[in-house]
Amino acid sequence: MENVLRSYIVDIAMELKAAKIKHPYFPETLCQQFTILQEEVGEVAKAINDYNDGEGTKQQVRQELLQSTAMCLRMLENLKFE
Fold first, then answer.
1. CA distance linking residue 18 with residue 67, whole number of Å
2. Do the Cβ atoms of 19 and 67 come closer than 8 Å?
3. Is residue 33 over pLDDT 90?
4. How many domains does the chain have?
5. Do the Cβ atoms of 22 and 29 come closer than 8 Å?
6. Cβ distance 24 to 79 under 8 Å?
7. Which of 32, 55, 51, 80 has its CA nearest to residue 71?
8. Is the pTM here over 0.85, yes or no?
């Protein structure tokens, strides 16, 4: 289990790094950030629907889950406390 978790952490970190390179600007407001996260979660739903219809793979679902998780971490990184 520990090796699997470690693998997920590495994959999520790589996805987060790629997202920051591709989209260096990240909105400051929580509403705008959450909209980005919702878009990513919507892509998870689409990947699941595609998989269920025989038009997608579990790997695509996994990739979308990693991207959604990376956006959660990006929101956490940008969360400001006064």
1. 10
2. yes
3. yes
4. 1
5. no
6. no
7. 32
8. yes
**What is the average pLDDT across 37-65?**
98
In angstroms, the CA 54 to CA 44 distance is: 15
Select from 70, 59, 56 the least CA-distant residue to 17.
70
d(Cα 68, Cα 82) in Å, to the nearest integer? Answer: 27
Check residue 69 and give its pLDDT: 97
Domain that holds residue 65: 2-78
3-state SS, the chain, equals CHHHHHHHHHHHHHHHHHHHHHCCCCCCCHHHHHHHHHHHHHHHHHHHHHHHCCCCCHHHHHHHHHHHHHHHHHHHHHCCCC
Structure tokens at 25: 């600007």
